[in-house]
Specification:
By secondary structure, the chain is mostly helical. The protein is built from 6 helices and 7 strands; from the N terminus they run H-E-E-E-H-H-E-E-H-E-H-H-E. The longest helix is centred in the N-terminal third of the chain and has 22 residues. It is flat and about 50 Å long.
Length: 155
């Protein structure tokens, strides 16, 4: 059973999760918006919150499969918490969690790093490693980079 000190942050993180998910699902998957209200994909500076919506859209459209979609959503390292006083585990605060989900990530570089790791560790030729799917995901993102992702008609 969690201690009283860890129950509060758990509730705060749980309470903020729907807002992050709603932002991503509402088409917030574009990191770049011009003054005209036209949003375009920028995978070199996209937040994890934004990527969750984009990955979901790509999976639903069939451009990537479910495994690739999940991999995109989980690409950045998720903060697991910290050691507090007397060695007690503390979850990230809601502010820390929100900062993480809203910090820009270069998904191109993250995917290239994952591919390089797989190549250097001999996994590239293993058909079950996910290497081919990861290459496909990178290719799809490169193809979509800079394309219109939405238009704000009130801008």
């Amino acid at each position: 059973m969690p201690s009283k000190s860890s129950a509060r942050p758990q509730a705060e993180i749980a309470a903020s999760a729907p807002a992050r998910a709603n932002n991503a699902a509402a088409g917030m998957g574009a990191a770049s918006q011009s003054g005209s209200g036209i949003r375009s994909y920028d995978f070199s500076r996209m937040t994890q919150s934004e990527m969750q919506g984009v990955a979901r859209e790509l999976g639903q459209s069939g451009k990537i499969d479910l495994h690739q979609s999940l991999r995109l959503m989980l690409t950045p390292v998720i903060p697991m918490g910290e050691v507090g006083p007397n060695g007690a585990y503390r979850l990230p605060s809601s502010e820390q969690a929100n900062a993480f989900y809203n910090q820009p990530v270069n998904y191109f570089q993250k995917l290239r790093d994952q591919l390089a790791f797989m190549e250097n560790s001999g996994q590239a030729s293993d058909p079950i490693s996910g290497y081919a799917g990861l290459k496909n995901t990178l290719s799809v993102l490169q193809e979509m980079q800079g394309k219109t992702s939405g238009v704000n008609i009130t801008a």
